[in-house]
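Human: I wish I could look at a protein chain and see how it folds. This is the protein in question:
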Amino acid sequence: MSKVGVSFLGLALAAWLAGCGSSSAGSCAQSSGGAVVSCSDYGEGYTAAQVMASCSGASSTYSGSPCPSDNRVARCVITVTAAGVTAATTVSYYPPRTPANVMQACSQANIGGGVTATFAAN
């Protein structure tokens, strides 16, 4: 299972245990050298509190707004369904990633067992 799949599966299970979520719970941007390299928009099945708690790394920043579309190269839409509850996340990628890199990462996150990942061009 890829690192992306493990992260979202864990958060989805937390959302399922909480039993609630909104259509937009915010976003979490990961930066390197001051530039955003990836950003996750958390939607259905997540709460803002869950996203804030998971977005606590030194290079991570929580926002109540969606991820920026400027300079985005591609996205991966990840949906996790467990016990009738669905949690959805869209991960946006930025340079130095390329659409080919994102397509490969997205296919690795498509692990089955209620987890689907779909590549989306910018």
Residues 3-121 form one domain. The CA atoms of residues 15 and 50 lie 8 Å apart. The chain has one domain: 3-121. DSSP finds three helices and six strands in the chain.
